[in-house]
Amino acid sequence: MDTVRDKPIKFSSSVFCLIILLSVYNSTAELRRLVQPPKSDGTLSFLVVGDWGRRGSYNQSQVALQMGKTGKDLNIDFVISTGDNFYDDGITSPYDCQFQDSFTNIYTARSLQKPWYNVLGNHDYRGNVDAQLSPILKDLDCRWICLRSYVVNADIVDIFFVDTTPFVDKYFDEPKDHVYDWSGVLPRNKYLNNLLADLDMSLQESEAKWKIVVGHHTIKSAGHHGITKELEKQLLPIFEANEVDLYINGHDHCLEHIRSINSGIQFMTSGGGSKAWKGDVNKWNPQEMRFYYDGQGFMSVYLSEAELRVVFYDGYGRVLHRWNTYKEGIYTDI
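Below the sequence we write its predicted structure tokens.
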């Protein structure tokens, strides 16, 4: 078994390590809530990257370098990972050196020494899931935050992180040669029913100006994996009923923006953190497809009370796509 070869990072400024530990429990919903304060002017900026953990290979280090530069320019508050944090089979224990080799020693820029809010992907479920959820990882690197499903409250926005892998039937029915760690999921129906009820209740009770949901798997995508039927059937109606603004995912190794013609939801894929799938794209309704890039990169999100702004970047930091929207009836000088 691999072991940690490097000493844990020590931060001279660890205020954020204390801030994110502030959590509250809703009296009715069970999703854990973490508090992420916005900037003094009430705005937030963060980066989103997914499908990255390859010990720096497949241009992971190049993407990390550009994330650091963009993170500095935007003065980001945190980073979101859309899952598949460690390839190919997650990590074996909290002391697996993959954690250092693919995370701590890769995302070294000062601007990235902020909270990292993670969800689990299907490749993470092929390892020891409890290892990624373990508080030991936070002791090794204070940035790391990973729960199965939870809510980050940042005043103007609530960000709902959803554990999507247990929804997908094929991982249970046709696992092929893969072994998945379902120790915290079984019995599956009870787990999913509770998650759906808790998510719906948390969304209903949210008083934030903006609602963003993050999950690993696609709902709408022209990439390799395409539509995840289970999420389309079980999660999408909840999102639509609760007027979610963005659904952000990974899983497809690309950058993508699809606008739903049936609701106000924007579907953003940020799965270009390392290995990408060149040319692996399917036809999609041109009324919905706003942007598709079959290479490495990441995205940024800026939020004020009135505006939401998204930018996609390639692995060299070049801007590929911009999109923004405003809340009706709210005005700002920004």
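The chain has nine helices and 16 strands.
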